[in-house]
Amino acid sequence: MITILSGTNRPGSNTLKVASIGMAFYRDSKVDAQLLDLAKLPAGIFSPEHYGKPPAEFQPFQKMILETDGILVVTPEYNGGFPGALKYFIDLLKFPDSLVGKPAAFIGVAAGRFGALRPIEQLEMIFQYREAHIYGKRVLLPAVESKLSADGTAIADESIRERFEQMLLGFGEFCRRLK
């Protein structure tokens, strides 16, 4: 089972659209996958008393990470970095169990021209610190609005779509080999 993590809690985000496109591709390719949308986190989870002590409502999310065979993070770029909600989510995960030895891959989504390269590099450092196994290929979607279909259900840019699909299949194989 691969978990696609939509790395923002912003409603209606392009990040969630890209994560959903990945889910549809995995479904069509008969790859077992699930979507973890940070927008589904309980609002109260961001209360300061939960830092370091996740509430019971966090347990389904924790369980998804512990039981997954790999994590595919789709991250936007916000002000040169990744969203605070994603960092907080990572901080809430049980240490070290949640990411040690876990395959991880990254897709970047940005309005700008660098396609969230900086947030991916930052996340790779965090995941390496947590001893995850980083998949060596990334996909960047710069000027994301122009790369998606009008309804947001497909990647319209053919070269990016090909890299996206190859990366998803390659990551699935990477997870299978490390299992």
Word description of this protein:
This protein is of the alpha/beta class. The chain has six helices and five strands.
The sequence of SSEs as H and E is EHEHEHEHEHH
Radius of gyration: 15 Å
Q: Percentage of helical residues? A: 25-40%
Span between termini: 10 Å
Largest sheet: 5 strands, parallel
Q: Could you report the average pLDDT, rounded to the nearest whole number?
A: 94
| Number of contiguous helices | 6
Q: Could you name the ranges where pLDDT drops below 50 across 5 or more consecutive residues?
A: none
Shape: globular
Strand order of the largest sheet: 2-1-3-4-5
Which percent band covers the strand fraction?
15-25%
Classify the secondary structure makeup into a structural class.
alpha/beta
E-strand count = 5
List its salient traits:
179 residues; alpha/beta; 5-stranded parallel β-sheet; 6 helices; globular
Secondary structure elements and pairings:
Blueprint: E1 2-6, H1 14-28, E2 33-37, H2 59-67, E3 70-76, H3 84-92, E4 103-109, H4 117-129, E5 133-141, H5 144-147, H6 158-178
Parallel strand pairs: 1-2, 1-3, 3-4, 4-5
